[in-house]
């Protein structure tokens, strides 16, 4: 998307006011990372120096806090979307969060929480698979967990256990378990 130039031609006071307005509007909708705001200002055509000064002031005021954003993002996406730590770290990096901050935030989800969430996802998906053979169900369940970032070993274990609990009789996954 090309950068629009008109904002660069505004008098400095007007450019500053409009840049603040853009940031406040975005922050009113939901918390944002510093990089998300930087990209939005760039798309709107604001000069980089105006953007950096404004982002510094927003950071100093506590209105932009990538660590707090990362913690909130991890809690929300793990709870409501069922994403695993690996997927959450990748999402945070794409949003411009420092990799160390992203990993630290994702570490709030321990192995037990991650496994329990994977089990919940598999159980929910199994309820919709009434006329699906076990091999197809296994493939679909493993694929779903992989797309959500769950480790392969955990996925195999959870799918095997949940299929058994649901009454499956085969040992399809027994020899695949790492």
Blueprint of the fold:
Elements: H1 12-29, H2 34-43, H3 48-60, H4 66-81, H5 85-94, H6 99-106, H7 111-127, H8 134-147, H9 152-165
Helix pairs in contact: 2-3, 4-5, 4-6, 5-6, 7-8, 7-9, 8-9
Kindly describe this structure.
The structure is a single chain. The chain has 3 domains: 6-60; 66-106; 111-176. Helices cover 67% and strands 0% of the residues. It has 9 helices and no strands. It has helices at 12-29, 34-43, 48-60, 66-81, 85-94, 99-106, 111-127, 134-147, 152-165. Helix 5 packs antiparallel against helix 6, helix 7 (111-127) packs across helix 8 (134-147) and helix 7 packs across helix 9. The longest helix has 18 residues, at 12-29. 27% of the residues are buried. The mean pLDDT is 89.
Series of secondary-structure elements, N-terminal to C-terminal: HHHHHHHHH
What fraction of the residues are assigned to beta strands by DSSP?
under 5%
Radius of gyration: 22 Å
Measured as a percent range, the helix fraction is 55-70%
Mean pLDDT: 89
Number of domains: 3
Based on Cα principal axes, name the global outline.
elongated
What distance lies between the first and last C-alpha atoms, to the nearest angstrom?
46 Å
Low-confidence residue ranges: none
Tally the beta strands: 0
Number of helices: 9
Structural class: mainly alpha
Largest sheet: none
Task: Describe the structure concisely.
With 178 residues, the chain is an all-alpha fold. The chain is built from nine helices and no strands.
């Amino acid at each position: 998307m090309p950068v629009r130039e008109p904002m660069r031609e505004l008098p400095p006071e007007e450019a500053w006011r409009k840049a603040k307005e853009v940031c406040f509007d975005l922050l009113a909708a939901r918390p944002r990372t510093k990089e998300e705001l930087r990209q939005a200002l760039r798309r709107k055509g604001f000069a980089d120096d105006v953007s950096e000064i404004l982002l510094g002031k927003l950071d100093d005021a506590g209105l932009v806090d990538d660590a707090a954003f990362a913690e909130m993002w991890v809690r929300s996406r793990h709870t409501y979307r069922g994403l695993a730590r690996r997927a959450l770290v990748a999402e945070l990096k794409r949003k411009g969060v420092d990799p160390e901050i992203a990993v630290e935030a994702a570490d709030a989800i321990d192995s037990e929480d991650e496994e329990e969430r994977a089990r919940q996802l598999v159980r929910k998906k199994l309820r919709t698979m009434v006329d699906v053979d076990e091999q197809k169900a296994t493939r679909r369940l493993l694929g779903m967990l992989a797309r959500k970032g769950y480790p392969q070993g955990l996925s195999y274990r959870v799918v095997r256990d949940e299929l058994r609990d649901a009454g499956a009789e085969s040992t399809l996954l027994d020899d695949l378990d790492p």
